[in-house]
Amino acid sequence: NRVPLKNTSTCEDYRLLENMNKLTSLKYMEMKDISINISRNLQDLNNKYASLQPYLDQINQIEEQVSALEQAAYKLDAYSKKLEARFKKLEKR
């Protein structure tokens, strides 16, 4: 009970497969191009980040210095309040 294959049907099947292969090949080429562009853009971003790194390090250093200066200002404020309290105490005598 085999159905005999028609020659035209087989040719059409091969053409369909050939077209599908061509389309698949084109899609893979597009994906390759996209991947290459992504890779280039990533490399550019990495280079830009590397060029910014010294400035980012400086910002971190300044932030640490500002924090230390802020702590010193709080200590100085507390000390000046103690001195003021002592001075007022001495004034009352």
Automatic annotation (TrEMBL):
Pfam families linked to this entry: BLOC1_2
An annotated Gene Ontology molecular function: gamma-tubulin binding
Gene Ontology CC annotation, any one: gamma-tubulin complex
GO terms under biological process: endosomal transport; lysosome localization
Family that this chain belongs to: Belongs to the BLOC1S2 family.
Name used for this protein in its record: Biogenesis of lysosomal organelles complex-1, subunit 2
Gene name of the record: bloc1s2
